[in-house]
């Protein structure tokens, strides 16, 4: 190869590298602009909600029942209902979702049936929430006779976030290097010891992140809850899950009527009185704050787990 050819090739390589760097720079700028548009839009809406609902940011708003008089209307039954529904959602979706993701990734044979399950789980993660509401209406409300209860709402939202938990669990497990599994097998560990002591330990942060993000989505869902017949006005609390007498547990609250914060917000927005719109704005701001706190906690938890693993 002549010296002229070498110089020509070097020139072409430098031009290609320069072109690729320019493409990377342009893509980074476009990505930052898109990110800033989304963040600024959310920040603008959030500030607007805070400005409109600032008059109701007090303990009385959280401790009063809904009322036909806007200045006395509160969010007590709504946030209590949301808390109880989230408890059922967590207990039904998280253990099943993590176990299913673990089985599909570590134990299930790699064949057409596993591929079919994987395709269906991925598709279910993108199904509109109203479809889950219609499914729950036919299965839980009429089929199993559970009625329009907290248990029905929790199971409905559990079905909604179940694919999210499964997918996040599988992705977290896939991120674990194969060398960790091979090293454990090399010292005589069994399959379960490898999965329990190593795979789950190192994927714990990613799994919890997916769970918290799924729970944050369930907290703000309205369509499936309305479909199964949640109440829009409720001036009482469900029975307490804990009692002062043995056996100290009460399950009557599972069949109680309920409402949640998004539905209470929707109810106030549907009224013509502007004072109710102020209540709705305050509720929307509270929902956003809780969602941001949950997502922030997920990020912090993942960071702490990764740091503890390094040590």
Automatic annotation (TrEMBL):
By its UniProt entry, which InterPro entries does this protein fall under? MetI-like (IPR000515), MetI-like_sf (IPR035906), Phosphate_PstA (IPR005672)
Give the main localization category: membrane
Tell where it localizes. Cell inner membrane; Cell membrane
Entry's Gene Ontology molecular function annotations: phosphate transmembrane transporter activity
Its domain of life? Answer: Bacteria
Keywords assigned: Cell membrane, Membrane, Transmembrane, Transmembrane helix, Transport
Q: Where are the transmembrane segments?
A: 25-51, 76-104, 124-144, 150-167, 218-237, 275-298
Listed under GO cellular component are:
plasma membrane
This protein's membrane topology, according to the annotation, is: Multi-pass membrane protein
Q: Does the keyword Disulfide bond apply?
A: no
A biological process term (GO) from this entry: phosphate ion transmembrane transport
Q: Where is the ABC transmembrane type-1 domain?
A: 79-298
Family of this protein: Belongs to the binding-protein-dependent transport system permease family. CysTW subfamily.
Q: What is this protein called?
A: Phosphate transport system permease protein PstA
Question: Which species is the source of this protein?
Answer: Candidatus Methylopumilus turicensis
């Amino acid at each position: 190869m002549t010296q002229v050819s070498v110089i020509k090739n070097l020139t072409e390589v430098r031009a290609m590298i320069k072109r690729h760097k320019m493409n990377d720079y342009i893509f980074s700028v476009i990505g930052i602009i898109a990110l800033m548009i989304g963040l600024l839009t959310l920040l603008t809406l959030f500030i607007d909600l805070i400005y409109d609902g600032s008059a109701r940011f007090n303990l009385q708003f959280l401790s009063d029942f809904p009322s036909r008089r806007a200045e006395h209307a509160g969010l007590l039954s709504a946030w209590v209902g949301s808390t109880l529904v989230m408890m059922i959602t967590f207990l039904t979706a998280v253990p099943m979702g993590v176990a299913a993701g673990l089985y599909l990734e570590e134990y299930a044979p790699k064949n057409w049936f596993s591929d079919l399950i994987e395709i269906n789980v991925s598709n279910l993660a993108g199904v509109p929430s109203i479809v889950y509401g219609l499914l729950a209406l036919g299965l839980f409300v009429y089929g199993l006779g559970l009625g329009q209860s907290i248990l029905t709402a929790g199971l409905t939202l559990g079905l909604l976030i179940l694919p999210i938990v499964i997918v996040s669990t599988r992705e977290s497990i896939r991120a674990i290097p194969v060398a960790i599994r091979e090293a454990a097998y090399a010292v005589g560990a069994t399959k379960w010891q490898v999965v329990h002591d190593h795979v789950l330990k190192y994927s714990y942060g990613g799994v919890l992140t997916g769970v918290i993000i799924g729970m944050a989505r369930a907290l703000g869902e309205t369509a499936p809850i309305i479909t199964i017949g949640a109440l829009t006005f409720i001036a009482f609390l469900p029975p307490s899950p804990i009692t002062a007498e043995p056996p100290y547990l009460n399950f009557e609250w599972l069949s109680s009527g309920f409402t949640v914060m998004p539905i209470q917000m929707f109810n106030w927005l549907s009224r013509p009185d502007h004072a109710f719109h102020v209540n709705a704005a305050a509720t929307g701001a509270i929902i956003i704050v809780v969602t941001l706190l949950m997502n922030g906690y997920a990020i912090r938890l993942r960071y702490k787990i990764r740091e503890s693993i390094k040590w």
